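Example 155.
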Amino acid sequence: MARRLRAVATAAAILCGATIGLQAAAQQAQETPSEDELYERPYIGEICGDNVVSRKLYNGARRYGNFCHRCHGEAGLGSSFAPSLVDSLRRLSREQFEDVVVNGRKNLVAGQEKVMPSFGHVTDVVLYREDIYAYLKAVSDGELKPGPLQRGCES
Ligand code: HEC
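Predicted structure in complex with heme C:
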């Protein structure tokens, strides 16, 4: 009888351990984003407070301000010149984004030409396109609010 009880207890302990192990694995899977996820959302791990960001996102926002803001508006929210990139990034992949930025695009809408200039020759855009994308994608996904950012994630 005592042996049987012990066996039941051991089985319960093993089951319990397995459950905890599974939970830990699930939690880890949640905490460790896949490569694909990191590729499409390179802001993961770069935000450490309310609009407090890493050097990468800070740089992205700064380059955005230098090269894109005048047409695409505050935080990529759009203007009368150019569409909202915050909306665009809900459907564009990172490749599609980079393709338009590097090669530009012309579009004739109702007799009016809309021109997205090509930035393929602008070193500071080509070099930092991932940072710009990461910044805009974070705003698009609601992880950053439009407005000033503070730098400070690096320990
Ligand atoms: C001179 C104005 C201007 C500047 C500067 C500019 N854009 Fe654009 N951009 C446009 C216009 C206009 C369009 C829409 C083109 C169209 O209708 O096809 C556009 C389209 C885009 C698109 C495609 C959006 C979609 O929904 O398909 C992306 C991505 C984009 N711009 C990113 C950028 C980035 C990043 C920068 C800065 C490096 C930038 N743009 C700078 C005018 C500009």
